[in-house]
Specification:
The structure is a homodimer of 232-residue chains. In chain A, 69% of the residues lie in helices and 3% in strands. Chain A has 232 residues and is mainly alpha-helical. Chain A has a single domain, classed as Hypothetical protein af1432, CATH 1.10.3210.10. The first copy, chain A, is globular. Chains A and B meet through helix 2, helix 3, helix 4 and helix 8 of A and helix 2, helix 3, helix 4 and helix 8 of B.
Chain lengths: 232, 232
Amino acid sequence: MTVADCMRTMTKGEKPVDERLKKQLAFILEADKTKNVFRQTHLSGHGRRENDAEHSWHTALMAYLLGEYANERIDVARVMLMCIVHDIVEIDAGDTYAYDADGLSTQKAREDAAKMRIFSLLPEDQANELISVFNEFEANETADARFAHAMDNLQPLLLNDSNGGGDWKAHGVTAEQVYGRQRITALGSEKLFAVADGIIRENIGKGNLPESGGSDASDNKKKTHARRKNSV
Amino acid sequence: MTVADCMRTMTKGEKPVDERLKKQLAFILEADKTKNVFRQTHLSGHGRRENDAEHSWHTALMAYLLGEYANERIDVARVMLMCIVHDIVEIDAGDTYAYDADGLSTQKAREDAAKMRIFSLLPEDQANELISVFNEFEANETADARFAHAMDNLQPLLLNDSNGGGDWKAHGVTAEQVYGRQRITALGSEKLFAVADGIIRENIGKGNLPESGGSDASDNKKKTHARRKNSV
């Protein structure tokens, strides 16, 4: 038995560790509810609406596979973790619809409250760790956060494109609005923004996406500027 | 611009990189189908059946939070990746039901064929990487694989326990069978096996789980020995 093994046995044999484990298991069970938060995006093959847990899984997989296209040096494992935890707050805060101006005005306050309640189920060190990862994602000021955002934006674009732009059509979304969102992708990856740009142009060409939408589109545009998430 | 930036620009400006990206995007879209593979486990709160993508997300989150309990030194990021990719083959192979003896006898062949078709959508280096990660998980001979299996086993146990053992009752599963499965958890983490053991004992006490089930249980036990996955 190595010294490290001895220390592990000593530490884990004591009561505080069991309290620690109980908290971790309570959080893990609470996190299960992420699977009940449904987004506006539909699965490929004209499927049902996607939920936050499977969306997060998809973005983590994408981060691993597309990390080579990041504008800056990133820590892929940290980006994957960011992808995995970034939507857990929506258990309480709900998925704020991209064009819901009222919802958007309260989104930050709702997500902050959710963040404190949900992550605080964990032992203090892990709660602080995940709150820090979540805050970093939201602030979008580091290379890792910018690449995680690129994944978060590109993923629904790929699904929606595969469905002939069904989600855009259903919500009367314009290319101008989609560009407003995908410009954030460019901060994480110019290369992947070029992919998004190609998809948007192709869908304009196919008539799936009007370039702009007159006065209605102008209203939507204002709302789009305020929003941060859950683009279709 | 650094030398690394120059090299990146040079490499990415060439046609072969676009072919590479196309393959990556094709795989990412194919992987979306993981969300349509439903398991026997139900979500907490007596919810619907869980799908492979959200199950994989949950196990990756658990790996990050519970990694400290691994019997051996593990690479948590690698375990998370293993959790994320371990069920993608079920897009073709389907979820093999825990007590389907016929299904189990062909499971390995079906999953091997699926593995080749699906991962080969990726550029060769990434295909080889993910096949290698998947093979390592299946072989269960490394510390990382053993801990990933512990997550894969503990996760449905936690959900099923939260639902009063509903999945066990629906399928007439016995404690003997559940132990058969959770002993694999012990290979990855003795500490987490103790959690599983506590849950099993508690459910026996509550009458949610018969200790053994006579001749029927004996039949089931044989089948359980042959199976590798998707325990309830």
